Amino acid sequence: MDAEILAVGTELLMGQIANTNAQYISQRLNDIGINVYYHSVVGDNPVRLKSALELALKRSDVVIMTGGLGPTQDDLTKETVSEIMGKKLVLHDESLKRIENYFKRLNRPLTKNNIKQAYLPEDCLVIKNDNGTAPGCIIEKENKIVVMLPGPPSEMRPMLDDTVIPYFKSKSQEKIVSKYLRIFGIGESLLEEKLMHLIEKQDNVTIATYAKEGEVTIRITNKSNDEAVALRELAHVEEEIAKVVGDALYSDEDKELYQIVGEMLINKGITIAFAESCTGGLISSVITDIPGISAVFDRAVVSYSNKSKVENLGVKQETLDKFGAVSRETAVEMAEGIRKVAGTDLGLSVTGIAGPGGGTEFKPVGLVYIALASKNGTACKELRLAGNRRKIRNYTVLNAFDMIRRWLMNESNN
Amino acid sequence: MDAEILAVGTELLMGQIANTNAQYISQRLNDIGINVYYHSVVGDNPVRLKSALELALKRSDVVIMTGGLGPTQDDLTKETVSEIMGKKLVLHDESLKRIENYFKRLNRPLTKNNIKQAYLPEDCLVIKNDNGTAPGCIIEKENKIVVMLPGPPSEMRPMLDDTVIPYFKSKSQEKIVSKYLRIFGIGESLLEEKLMHLIEKQDNVTIATYAKEGEVTIRITNKSNDEAVALRELAHVEEEIAKVVGDALYSDEDKELYQIVGEMLINKGITIAFAESCTGGLISSVITDIPGISAVFDRAVVSYSNKSKVENLGVKQETLDKFGAVSRETAVEMAEGIRKVAGTDLGLSVTGIAGPGGGTEFKPVGLVYIALASKNGTACKELRLAGNRRKIRNYTVLNAFDMIRRWLMNESNN
Fold first, then answer.
1. Which end of chain A, N or C, is more open, meaning fewer C-beta atoms within 10 Å of its C-beta?
2. What is the pLDDT of residue A372?
3. Based on the domain organization, do A141 and A119 belong to the same domain?
4. Which of A288, A298, A393 sits opposite B281 (nearest CB)?
5. Are residues A354 and A233 in the same domain?
6. Is B166 in the same domain as B185?
7. Which helix (H) or strand (E) segment is A63 a member of?
8. Strand B89-91 vs strand B119-121: parallel, antiparallel, or unpaired?
9. Could you tell me the residue range of the domain that residue B282 belongs to?
10. pLDDT at site B107
């Protein structure tokens, strides 16, 4: 089955937002073996919308549409699809009830416009929306399938994941299973080289690598008529890859590095505190994205000034004078200092030059020290990073989390 | 002139990246009065690329293409465009020299594939690429214009801004000028209501509002044969809008709120420190995105635990016991505490419940206190925010920066 993603919305053509829905839907469809050959975007214009949809139905088996399901006169997706597919719009009682309840909860009056949202093409499969008012739907006709989903990603994503993807899975005899392996610490080219023997002999299981800033994701996919067989083969390939990449593999569930670290800390009950300089609170802000992290995260000090390094972290003035704020010695004292004042199991510190100014011949922009203090002593890592300020800061954050992850792994091995 | 943006790249259809190029190009074209009616994406497939380009040339005057200019066999944009436009590919000496120099600088050998990148359609206008190897080009034929740009945004953006936009501007008699006014603290509906008299009477100058999370941007655009006239009319409308929105208008240069605050602090030489709880270091990480902020930013304490609030900020244990960590009283002591320990002009604190857990009947998720301590005393603001953890944290950050901005504005008025 070949698919096309057709987004409707003038805000996309004005450049107010990027079409991240197309990215998300493409990933999910590719995961289950549906090829995406086209993305298209048209505005809230009935003539152009109609011709774009006609074209999509001519060249693709499946058309996934996003947007244009809102309550206003501009929102024309349902009307246009119904016209082209020869369906009437009829009131869907259950959707009307959901919309009425939605407004009741918000304590806001229901308007006529919102009732329009409960009208759906006859004989369609309704997709309920738990995060907004516009229901979605799936229409089948003459070997073509049109799916309509609302534009806001927070509404669209759960509807896709919970209803649309299972719908397509159930239509196919073939079972397609995918897994994302996340790797930190090996570049994409080197990784491909290391995996070449697996990539070359791939038969059922396909292996693809994708580089993301500072990280690589490996997607492995398998199809079979028997899901258990597909999963078994996938597990075998995952094992082979794990042998090659070793502990650079940090997740086989497509999780972010910071999530893995947060979960490890919480599960092991190991407490932590941060002392950040060049990252300016990024490490702390990222880990506090995790609900419930307060069980193990005590505090962070963003010691931008030397005065703060001395006062908050107990870094010695003579260390700063002799070695400078960006030095192995200062990083170590910062890590030990935050561990001591916070009374946590771990203390992690970062000091570096994120640029664009502040670099010298001996301490260039991109020089970063990360130190991790624990009951076993203090380890310090020197990084020499390339790129602009944003890249250097982000790459430092990844390295910091990876250092914690590796400590936690070794700890549990002891 | 009506335009279409056609991106070429299988990585877009696989969902590896979002088509942010289309967003960027759409903004820039709209700024100079070129309507964008379609975005399309096709993979590195010659047949589909050809038919997508033929369609684009049929329905649009201008086709801006991104991607497919790389050195590999997959990269087919130039070949396909040349075929359809009836042009030969010829070696462009200057581009070859640029590519040779690029590899010399990197100390890497030049391959045959890279020489392919110096071949361009005859009679085209070459767009030089200062950040990569693939030159771009503009081809005109029979009232149609095709622009080819490389896919990586860091290469594409400067080529668009420095060559393509001036090229289109020079083609038009009419001068189009735009300005973005950034507003914080008035919702989009209310803002439209307040501006209705201006929106309704708009003649030359068009006014459009765009909502972004927690903020609104107003774009004002004007066209005239005389740029000075266009600018004068624009300035007049800006004044009218400013009268209506007052000091909710924080930038007329499309800058972010935190940038405005950072610049104000640096220009006035006013020092600051943060005490963050529910935002977990976000405020600090955002402001340290600004190079040179160390002149005024001293430190931040992310006091996630109550212990840290007492130890680092001098919050009284009895305040925590009596009023709780999320309270006006604690926020005030945190702000005064961080101002005192850091010895800065300003101390800003945040404490709140970001959710999803931790809410109670009297202190629900979304309850946030922001306090700002200065020589004039301490102000505290209570917020009741809706949305998920991410939204609550981001909205708190915006409110915090706005509170600082308003203090700095009043200060300079005294």
1. C
2. 98
3. yes
4. A288
5. no
6. no
7. strand A62-66
8. antiparallel
9. 257-413
10. 78
| A105 and A180, same domain (yes or no) | no
Which neighbouring-strand residues pair with B373? B347, B378
Which residues in chain A touch residue B208, judged by CB atoms under 8 angstroms apart? 14
Domain shared by A90 and A132, yes or no: yes
Q: Which of B18, B307, B343 sits opposite A23 (nearest CB)?
A: B18
Number of domains present in the structure of chain A: 3
pLDDT of the residue at B209: 83
Q: Which residues does chain B have with pLDDT short of 50? A: none
The stretches in chain A having pLDDT less than 50 are: none
Query: What single string gives the DSSP state of each residue in A258-304?
Result: HHHHHHHHHHHT--EEEEESTTTTHHHHHHTTSTTGGGTEEEEEE--
Q: Least CB-CB distance to B281: which of A55, A298, A302? A: A302
pLDDT at residue B343 in the model: 98
What pLDDT does B102 receive? Answer: 85
Same domain, A37 and A57: yes
Hey, which residues 35-94 in chain A have their CB within 8 Å of chain B? 36-43, 45, 48, 52, 55
pLDDT at A414: 58
Instruction: Check CB contact under 8 Å for B291 and A11.
Output: no
In this structure, the answer to whether residues B125 and B185 fall within a common structural domain is: no
**Of the candidates B251, B267, B282, which is a domain's last residue?**
B251
B24/A15 CB distance under 8 A: yes
d(CA A53, CA A125): 19
